Structure formats: structure tokens, C-alpha cells
Amino acid sequence: MLSAGLPEGTMPKLERPGPLRERVYEALLELITTRALRPGQHLVESELAQHLGVSRQPVREALQRLNTDGWVDLRPAQGAFVHEPTEDEADQLLTVRTLLEAEAARLAAVNADAAGVAELEDLCGRGEAAVGGEEVEKVVEANAAFHARVMALAGNAVLAELARQVDRRVRWYYTPVARQRGAQSWIEHRELIAAIAGKDEQRAVEVMREHTEHTRRSYHERERG
Amino acid sequence: MLSAGLPEGTMPKLERPGPLRERVYEALLELITTRALRPGQHLVESELAQHLGVSRQPVREALQRLNTDGWVDLRPAQGAFVHEPTEDEADQLLTVRTLLEAEAARLAAVNADAAGVAELEDLCGRGEAAVGGEEVEKVVEANAAFHARVMALAGNAVLAELARQVDRRVRWYYTPVARQRGAQSWIEHRELIAAIAGKDEQRAVEVMREHTEHTRRSYHERERG
DNA sequence: ACTCCGTAGACTGTATCCAATAGCCAGTCG
DNA sequence: CGACTGGCTATTGGATACAGTCTACGGAGT
């Protein structure tokens, strides 16, 4: 084995652009989450294909995945439409999120080691810094990263996959309220870290549940805020 | 409106075959769950296409969905392989299932009405009848139907969608142990119905959690059984 | 005997082409 | 004047053809 002595990170991984359909998927998702494509809008395969500089095929495959993930509604022989979220649906989504995240918090408390806690501290620091700044997008991103890290510490791949799907959609709803939530959210994150570091399962669950419920309430009150 | 007087069920709906990719998806899933396609097996698009009498296109799309749903692993430039489940993964899956089903039981207890309870009773009866018979497949099917009904009563579409994915894979693991679980499982179902009918949230959660945990333990002890 | 290189085969991934379907608008008949 | 019917258009859905890439096997050289 010649490669035995080579360090891990030094090989640039030979940047393979990955399947085109994946990149199209990501691109469209970006356009949807940034509201460049608005809810209810009619998406035409050929237009998207031309706009992205690829053929229709990858666009089709991407749209189908977006359909199964709940981002677009695919009406037969008519086209794809950006999904319009309803109040009920948002509520259900946030309910499920509470469930998944609470379980993740519990498992994280069970499994966490010093290194894991340190990572969370680090992310929390970055998040708090972002709150001070102007860019809402940064805050939302940091928030997602923090929750993803907790999920990773839980060590349940199936749970993580489900949460990934749910959280991404929650992020879409969350963006408008991120500003008002702001600082309070990161205080709660700190409490969560403390519970995890202390391996206090019950407390971790409670903190996380309360935290996500706050987010839910903020969402429902978003117009009046 | 000429069609006003026509009864609802009389028009045979003109059996619309629906998108081909969907049928291919279902067909392949059937082949996987019945173990006609064994774990680790290499799936070749052109072979499947020819075998099913369709072109490669729908097969591709079906395989991609199977990939995102965790049924096959899609290795770039190499092909699709039927996913081989590991012990860890099964455990994680059953853990998540416990979580989702318990929440569903709670919500069902909150929302249930007389009609809903009656439906559960009915399904339970069918299930008990199936246990008496010989066909394991029938039992597994009845079990899935029962859990699906509870999920429907919960009235959370997002939760239901997640559970649908998870349960289908659980079903795959469950089949081998269905025979040993058999009757005991349906006794627990009866208890669950009682809890739901009595709108006892806490008890519904406990019963369901215990029920799914039993299944998990049965799975881990399957070889020795 | 082992390793390295070259070549051949096969599969995936992408682009183009044709057919089928739903929606819409105008025209026509009652 | 209203409602139905016909054709028209735009778009998806499925099939086919083509190019790029990875793997595996076999032979030659050390």
C-alpha cells in the first residue's frame, strides 16, 4: 500500500462535480428558499433547462425529487408548481420538528463527549456573532448548523435523515422570524449545551422542546410582530 | 350538468394507469420486499427495463426514488445495488419508529371519535383472524394497515408521510419475526384502542411505545427464536 | 511470481425526438 | 343568449441515440 503514509486531507479529492441532477436540485432549492421562485409559480422544464444551461432531463429528475420532498407540486401533464405552504402544514411541520429535535437532544446528551460539546460551543459562538451582524441569512445558516451538529452527536442516521428533510423546510418558514427570535434563541442554545455536557437527558429534552416550541409560537405570531 | 344524477361508484374511473415511473417504483419495491431481489444484488437499468417491458427512463426515475428512500444504493458510474441492512441501521430505524408511532398514538387519543375507534376495532378483528390463518404476509399487511389507521387518526400529514417511509422499511425487517410475535401483538393493539377510546393520551403513548419496543426486541432475538 | 499497463466491454449519464394529454378559446347549435 | 363541441397549443411523458467513464481482464515486462 503506497498510499498508507499519506495524510487524510492533503489529497484534493479531485473535485468531481457530482451528478448534474444533484446540482440542479440544489440550484432550484436555492431559488425556492430565497423566494426567487415564489409559491404557486408555474415552473416549465424547458425554461429552467435553458436558464441553467443544461438539458431537460436533469431538470426533470430534480423536479421529481423536489416533488417527493414536498417543495413543488407536480400536476400531471401540466407542470410543476412551487408548493404553497398553508398555516396547518407549517404547524404540523414544526410539531414534527419538535419531536425529532427533542429526541436528538436526548441522544446527544447520552452520547456526547468533550470534543462534541466543544464543537457546539464553537458553533454557538459563531451564531451569537452572526446575530450581532446585519445578515439574516447568516443567522439562519448558523442556526441550522447548530441543530445539525446536535443531530450528528445523537448518532442515529435514520433520525438525522428525517430531520434533515424537515429542518430544511422549517428553515424556509423560519427565515422571516429569525430576526425577532434572534438573541433569545442562542441563549436557549447555551442552556442546551449545558444540559448535554452534564449528560442530563431529561433536561436536554425539555430545553430543546421548549426551544422549538418558541420558534413555533414565533411563527404563528409573525404577522403581528 | 348531465352527470348530476349519476351515482358515484358506477363509473369505473377508466382505470388510468398513472405515471409509469410510479408503477415501476411499486413493482421494484415489491420485488425487493419479497426478496426476489436480494440485498447487495446489482441492478442493471437495461435489464430491468427489458424485463418490465418499458424503456430505461422510467426505470431510472424509479431507481432514484428508491435511492432517496433508502432501498437501493446508487454508486456513481457503477449502478444500483439493493441496500444491505445492518444491525445498527435496523435498530435506529426501529427507534425512530417508536418515536413516530408513539406521537401518533398520542394525537390519535386526542382526536379520536367514535367512528375512528370503530374502524380500529374492525381492523383489529381482521388482524386477529389473519393470525389464525397460515399466511404470514396477510398478518404483516393487517399490522401495517392498523398502524396506518392510527396514523391517519392523528391528523398530522407530515408525521404520516415520515411514518409511511419508516414503516415500509420496518415492515421489511418485521416480516421474519411476524410469526413469533403473532397473537401478542394484537392483544397490545386492543389495549391501544382502549386507551385511544378513553382519550387517555399518556396511556396511549405508553402502550404504543411498549408495543413497538417489543417488536424491536423480537427483531434482535430473531435468530435465536 | 508479481506488478504494471493497455485494451475492451459495459454501464451510467446526457441530449434529442416523437407521441400523448390537459387546458383553453373560438365557433356553432339549440 | 347560453352551453356544448371542436380544434389548437403548450407541456409533460416515454423512447432512442450518443458520449464519457469506470471496471475488469489479459498480456508483457521486471
TrEMBL record, chains A, B:
Looking at the record, the residues that make up the HTH gntR-type domain are: 18-85
Concerning Gene3D superfamilies, the annotation shows: GntR ligand-binding domain-like, Winged helix-like DNA-binding domain superfamily/Winged helix DNA-binding domain
Q: GO MF annotations for this entry? A: DNA binding; DNA-binding transcription factor activity
Keywords attached to this Swiss-Prot or TrEMBL record, sorted alphabetically, are: DNA-binding, Transcription, Transcription regulation
UniProt-listed Pfam families: FCD, GntR
SMART domains according to UniProt = FCD, HTH_GNTR
Asked whether the keyword Transmembrane is assigned, the reply is: no
Q: Transcription among the record's keywords?
A: yes
Annotated InterPro entries: GntR_C, TF_FadR/GntR_C, Tscrpt_reg_HTH_GntR, WH-like_DNA-bd_sf, WH_DNA-bd_sf
Q: Which superkingdom is the protein from?
A: Bacteria
Q: Which PROSITE patterns match?
A: HTH_GNTR (PS50949)
Q: What is this protein called?
A: GntR family transcriptional regulator
Query: Which organism is this protein's natural source?
Result: Streptomyces abyssalis
